[in-house]
What we know:
Number of domains: 1
Number of helices: 7
Strand order of the largest sheet: 1-3-2
Strand content: 5-15%
Helix content: 40-55%
CATH class: Mainly Alpha
CATH superfamily: Winged helix-like DNA-binding domain superfamily/Winged helix DNA-binding domain
Radius of gyration: 17 Å
Amino acid sequence: MSNRRSLKQTANQAAWSELDPGPKVVVPKTILDHENYLRMKWSARSLLWDIAAQFTGHNNGFLCASFSVMQERNWGSKTTLAAALAEVEHYGLIVKTQQGDRTHKPNLFALTWRKINKREGATLLTPDWAYVQPMATWKESRPLYDPDAEVERKAA
């Protein structure tokens, strides 16, 4: 039985290697068909994949969407980036794990369909259970994103 399992694992690894030998970002199809994802503007979808491109398999919770990082992926407007980031957060596809500050500590994020990875000495803004299972906030139906309401909500 274990021999059959190892043959299946080897075949699986070979199938993934055919795609490309580098790291992969696996996304459940249910996300791509979910109303939250489908409601996002193209700029928000693009940002989601640019953030996901940083994922190595061991760094969820430590993904950065700062303008300097995103410029390397051809983001040219801080305003467009900020709006897209707010929208992706609104729909629950990413969650902020570290609040940045003016001492060069950036905001950090996690993909919500993956569990958060631990790092020695890092304290993140996430519940302990998020290290064991994904937060899955993308599954929660959200109202249509309204940037004006978001600004008012944050100001309150």
